[in-house]
Amino acid sequence: ATISVALASGIQPKEAFRYSFILSIPAIIGANLLEFGSTLTVSYQSMLGFVIAAATGYIAIRIVDHVILREKLHLFSIYCFALALVSLMTLL
């Protein structure tokens, strides 16, 4: 939503992308601090999950960066709409 609003406001695509992800940093840190008390133990499974989440997150950020710089964000909206329809159909 932040990227779409920034683009609609006339901000350059690269700046909108950077702003959106910089804006997410406090939320991510806050969520980790809230969970820190309940996850004091570190296991193999949690470390593997962390590595996989970090890798897929990095890949997703690179894909979004590529899509925004090529000004193809409308393709992402089609994907979101299709996914929403599939989700609604499975819930009904």
Overall description:
The protein has 92 residues and is an all-alpha fold. The chain has one domain (2-91). It has helices at residues 2-8, 13-36, 44-69, 73-91. Helix 1 (2-8) packs antiparallel against helix 2. The chain is extended, with a radius of gyration of 17 Å. It starts with a helix and ends with a helix. The model has no long low-confidence stretch (mean pLDDT 84).
Tell me about the biggest sheet? none
Give the overall average pLDDT: 84
H/E element order: HHHH
Shape: extended
Poorly predicted runs: none
Radius of gyration (Å): 17 Å
Tally of domains: 1
β-strand amount: under 5%
Helix count equals 4
Core attributes:
single chain; 83% helix; 92 residues; 4 helices; mainly alpha
How does the SSE layout of this entry go?
Layout lengths: L1 H7 L4 H24 L7 H26 L3 H19 L1
Helix pairs in contact: 1-2
Could you provide a short overview of the structure?
This protein is mostly helical. The protein has helices at 2-8, 13-36, 44-69, 73-91. α1 (2-8) runs antiparallel to α2 (13-36).
